């Protein structure tokens, strides 16, 4: 094949079309298993955060506000006993941090489980460890200060990972606000 402008453009076009078709095929092939894996991760986090329920919280999910915060009410014998709140913050050092937080109906936090994060391994990723996350357990959405101690709150930052710590707190604050909004709506209905 003679090297000229037309032949180079034709070869480049063929390579681009083949690449696009290959990427599209792989996307179609993997999109459903990836979605199922993400759903399984969310279900596991909900089970870990709210423990006892006899309904399917995924079927009763409610989106609150414009931040995309999703609430999954957990029921026992028809009564809401706790809520799993899926929230996120884009303020992490490594980008977006997604988590699911458990809250009892009296506002007591049962904890959180990070479902997605890209923080620095061994540093910012320590926000996933119990040493940091257990500080939230037992706090109450009605009267606790969900801020770092250096900002006047109740939470110690991960040493050397203040940005990651603040990102988790940002996500937690969104969850608390959404839960309080949800709980207020439930109280008004009763």
Notes on the protein architecture:
With 190 residues, the protein is of the alpha+beta class. The chain has one domain. Helix content is 41%, strand content 23%. The protein is built from three helices and five strands, in the order αβββββαα. Strands 1-2-3-4-5 form a five-stranded antiparallel β-sheet. A hairpin with a 4-residue loop joins β1 and β2. The longest helix is centred in the N-terminal third of the chain and has 46 residues. The chain is elongated and about 75 Å long. The model has no long low-confidence stretch (mean pLDDT 90).
Helix content: 40-55%
- Which of globular, elongated, flat, extended, rod-shaped describes the shape? elongated
Largest sheet: 5 strands, antiparallel
Specify the number of helices: 3
Short description:
This protein is of the alpha+beta class. Helices cover 41% and strands 23% of the residues. It has helices at 5-50, 130-133, 162-189, and strands at residues 62-64, 69-76, 79-92, 95-104, 109-116.
List strands and helices in order, with pairings.
Layout lengths: L4 H46 L11 E3 L4 E8 L2 E14 L2 E10 L4 E8 L13 H4 L28 H28 L1
Antiparallel strand pairs: 1-2, 2-3, 3-4, 4-5
Key traits:
190 residues, alpha+beta, five-stranded antiparallel beta sheet, 3 helices
């Amino acid at each position: 094949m003679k090297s000229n402008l037309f032949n180079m453009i034709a070869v480049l076009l063929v390579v681009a079309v083949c690449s696009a078709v290959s990427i599209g095929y792989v996307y179609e092939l993997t999109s459903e298993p990836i979605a199922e894996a993400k759903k399984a991760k969310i279900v596991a986090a909900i089970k870990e955060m709210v423990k006892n329920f006899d309904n399917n919280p995924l079927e009763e999910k409610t989106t609150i506000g414009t931040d995309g915060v999703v609430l999954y009410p957990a029921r026992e014998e028809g009564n809401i006993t706790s809520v799993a709140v899926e929230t996120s913050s884009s303020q992490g050092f490594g980008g977006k941090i997604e988590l699911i937080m458990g809250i009892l109906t009296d506002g007591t936090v049962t904890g959180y489980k990070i479902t997605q994060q890209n923080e620095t391994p061994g540093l910012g990723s320590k926000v996933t460890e119990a040493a940091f996350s257990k500080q939230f357990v037992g706090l109450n959405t009605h009267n606790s200060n969900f801020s770092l101690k250096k900002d006047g709150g109740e939470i110690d930052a991960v040493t050397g990972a203040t940005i990651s710590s603040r990102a988790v707190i940002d996500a937690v604050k969104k969850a608390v606000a959404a839960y309080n909004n949800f709980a207020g709506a439930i109280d008004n209905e009763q």
